[in-house]
UniProtKB/TrEMBL annotation:
UniProt feature coiled coil, ranges: none
Top-level division of the source organism's lineage: Bacteria
UniProt-recorded name of the protein: DUF2256 and DUF3253 domain-containing protein
Length: 126
């Protein structure tokens, strides 16, 4: 038997979601938590955000063993107003934390990528 767990991590937002009745037959193929994430998908902007996040986190770590604010990533990617980019930056942070490439910190301690609320910092995970 190849039993699948009753929850998954959404490939877009990086949040945990549970099996629902409508997915019983094709749960193995479900990748998105919601219609919104299914429509959004992972685009070239999201990959650009991930690259910039890894670059900045690695540089910060190598210079000072430090962490960075997600807004630094949004500012690097945006031409003008970076704030609309922040939700995508937080999603990228969750994806990279699930992939074990960065850590999401609160009060300087790593937190579960699906659980945090409020301000975070990002740290390179060497
Ligand atoms: Zn999602």
């Amino acid at each position: 038997m190849n039993e699948q767990p009753d929850y998954k991590i959404c490939v877009v937002c990086g949040l945990k979601f549970s099996k629902r009745a409508k997915w019983l037959r094709d749960w193995h193929a479900v990748r998105y938590c919601s219609e919104r994430c299914r429509r959004q998908k992972i685009t070239s902007i999201d990959l650009e955000i991930e690259d910039a996040m890894l670059d900045l986190a690695q540089i910060r770590w190598q210079r000072s063993q430090g962490s960075l604010c997600p807004s630094e990533v949004a500012m690097k990617i945006s031409d003008g107003d970076w704030r609309p980019m922040m939700e995508r930056v937080r999603q990228a942070a969750r994806r990279l934390a699930h992939a074990d490439k960065i850590e999401i910190l609160q009060a300087n301690h790593p937190v579960e990528p699906t659980r945090f609320r409020g301000p975070i910092r990002l740290r390179w995970k060497a």
